[in-house]
Structures are given as C-alpha cells and as structure tokens.
Amino acid sequence: MELSSNERLTERVLAMRDGIDEITVTEHSPDGLVTVVVDGRSKLLELELDPRIYRDQNADALTKTIMATVLAATESAEHDAARLVMKLMPGAEVADEADVDTMFDPALSVLAHDRGRR
User: Fold this and answer.
1) How much is the pTM?
2) From CA 26, how far away is CA 35, in angstroms rounded?
3) How many structural domains is the chain composed of?
C-alpha cells in the first residue's frame, strides 16, 4: 500500500526532527581557550573557558573569540542539518547545502513531488 502525501510528509518531517535532535557540534577557538557545544538547532549547550583566558585581560578580544567560536559551531551544525535534510528530500534540486532551509524544504519537497505525480 502506498503512503499518502501527508503520511510521507509526516515520516520525513519526523525523521528530520529526530536527526536534527541528535546533532551536536563541538568547536574550539584557534587558541584552544574557548570550547563551545551546540545542538542541531544551533542552541548553545555548553561554553567552556580555559582558566588561561585570565592571563590576557582583554574583554573585547575574549568576546570576539567566543562569538567567532559559537558562530563556527552553529555553521557546522547547520551544515550537518542541511546534509540530513538533503538525504530526506528525494529528487530535490538543491545545488548547495547553504541553500537548504531545514525547517520548510522537506515539506516543500514532498508537495512538489506529489504535484508532479498528478
């Protein structure tokens, strides 16, 4: 028995949600003094500061290092999520992971596929 478009959409969205929920990314600053962990939704889970950060009391530099490390981690998590979504979108015409919208593309892919079958 073939699944309806709603059932296929539900399966893919649930698989995407579960897969994204399993993603965690750890990123270290170039100097190794800042470590961050983010999840597949780019939520900051952990921020670890090495005690050596107090040697150089430059708050602006520390802020920039933290922000850059969080950004690198969130970008990596977004790429991981995009790769997952691309696997769940059969026949999707996506040239680059950066073009993937992890929130809407699975549903749009199923709807477009169903429209082409009619």
Assistant:
1) 0.74
2) 7
3) 1
